[in-house]
Fold this protein.
Amino acid sequence: MRLTRRRLMATAAALPLAAALPRWSLAEMSLGDATVTTVSDGNLVLPGDFVFEPMPQDKLLPILEATGQSRDELRPECNLTLYRDGTNTVLFDAGAGPNFMPSAGELPASLDAAGLAPEDITHVVFTHAHPDHIWGVLDDFGDLLFPQAVHMMGRAEWDYWWDPETVNTIGKARAAFAVGAKNRMEAIEDLVELFDDGEEVLPGIAAVSTPGHTPGHMSFELRRGSEAAMVVGDAIVNHHVAFARPEWPSGSDQNPQQAVATRKALLDRLVADDMTLIGFHLPEGGVGRAEATESGYRFVGMDV
Ligand SMILES: [Zn+2]
């Protein structure tokens, strides 16, 4: 496998000043005769409690210190995976769009910097329907950003957010997530195709059910010949505690216990198969590997 990393600073002159920040990195690798690239949607700004509150605080702090992560605030990158096999140009998730957080929603500029227009995207495949992953289907004017693309979502995820009861059962903190997801899903309803666990959704792309972060969260195994990589979405949502202590419940998961079981099984498999992983909120473009340690795992970024 060949992997190259290049900074977008070379093309930064073409971008608005605010976008030309060092966080704009782009990881690219070949997978057989296909190309896998990650493109940035910017980053999120989250209060530490949103993720860390349910964890054993005395054991948490040394792990955060070791990775330079503050307890008070997280600023995770948002990295979308782009898969190009010569026929299909597939984008995994759609980013946050203009209305979620000022620090996110950079996808259109990022695609432009990668030499792509929204019309070049043939398929948008969702890991799940949280705001930073689906709100970006609509642009600044509330119009579809990818009106000619097939939009694809796991059936369980679609059914959960489509259910009018979800806004009442999800809890106050995430009620806006439910309203926002339903609104975007209504916008893409005529373009959407649903799929189930294990299905080959497109040539070389197989759906792998990884529930817990949301009820129908999906990961995707990309395979070309003997080479493979796993798009894990938010099933492994950060590079510190999710790897070091995958058995700890995280406040960012809607069903923390189910997410723990999913995360442990996924990390086990990634290590056993020595498979490249691509995480939406992992650093340096989100591409790397999991390595087993004495007490858990660690994330090794694919730095070349
Ligand atoms: Zn996310």
Observations:
- Residues 130, 132-133, 234, 280-281 surround zinc ion (CB under 6 Å).
- The chain has one domain: 3-301.
- Residues 3-301 form a domain with the Metallo-beta-lactamase; Chain A fold (CATH 3.60.15.10).
- The mean pLDDT is 92.
